[in-house]
Amino acid sequence: MEQQGPTPTQSHTYEPGYLVVCHACQTPYDATQAQWCACLTTMRTLVCPTCNACSCAAPKAYRDQFWAKAPAALCAARFEEKQRAFDPPPKPAPRQVKRPLVVVADDERVILRLASAILDSMGYGVLTARDGAEALEMTRTYKPDLLLADALMPKIDGREVCRRLKEDAATASVKVIIMSSAYTAAKYKTEALSHFKADAFVTKPVDFKVLQELLMKHIG
Ligand SMILES: [Zn+2]
Ligand SMILES: [Zn+2]
Which of 83, 111, 119, 142 has a CB 3.0–4.6 Å from the CB of 124, allowing a cystine? Predict the structure, then answer.
C-alpha cells in the first residue's frame, strides 16, 4: 500500500510486514516487529509477542521454512546481529572484579557478546575468554565463581579445561558449565559430567531461563 502524507525521508523504504504463526501458541504475529530472543546461540530467532516463545526450540522444518520465506531485510538483520562487533571491556585487577564472577569462554564473538549482556543483566560480574587456553589462565588468575565454557574451542577443548581445573586444588571449587552445539547426544552430557567433572552440561541454543536456573543453582 502507498504511504500517505509526508514521508520522513525520501530514501526511507516501507518494508511490508512478515506475518508468521507462532509454533508454540499458534498466534500470528508480524516477525518484522518482533524482538530477538535472549538465547545463547549463534543465530538467534524472534520472540512471539503473545507467549514470549522464540523459535530456537521449534522443529527444524518450522525454522527452515520461517527463514526461507522471510523478507531479505529480516534475514540481513539476523546476520547483522550475528556479526555485530564485540570488544570485551579491559580486564580489571582480580581484587576489583564484581562478584559473583562468571568467566564465559567461547570462540564465537556473538556468544561472548550475548552472554556478557545476559549475565550483566542478572547482576553478575563477567569476563570473557576466546579460547580454552585463555579460559584456563583467566580462571586461575580471577578464581571466578563459575566458568561457562563452550566444548569446542581452539587451543584447549572446554571439557579438557574443566578437567584440569577440577584436578587442581586451587581451582577445583570453581563451578563449570559446559555448553555445546556440536555434542548434543545424551552420551556427551554423561561424559562431560563423569569424565570431565563438569557441574552441568547444556546444549545450544541455551534458553535464558535455563541459564538463569543453572546459575541460581550453582552460585546463587
Ligand atoms: Zn506464541
Ligand atoms: Zn531463542
Answer: 119
**185 alpha carbon – ligand 2 mean position (Å):** 20
Tell me the mean pLDDT in the region 79-98: 91
Question: Tens digits of per-residue pLDDT, 13-47?
Answer: 555 699 999 999 999 999 999 999 999 999 999 99
Domains of the chain are: 19-83 (no CATH), 94-219 (3.40.50.2300)
Q: How far is the CA of 63 from the centre of ligand 2 (A)?
A: 11
* Distance from residue 28's CA to the centre of ligand 1 (Å): 8
* Position 11 pLDDT exceeds 80: no
* DSSP symbols for 20-87: EE-TTT--EEEGGGPPBP--BSSS--BBPTTT--BSTTS-HHHHHHHHHSS-HHHHHHHHHHHH----
Cα–ligand 1 centroid distance for 87 (angstroms): 34
pTM above 0.90, yes or no: no
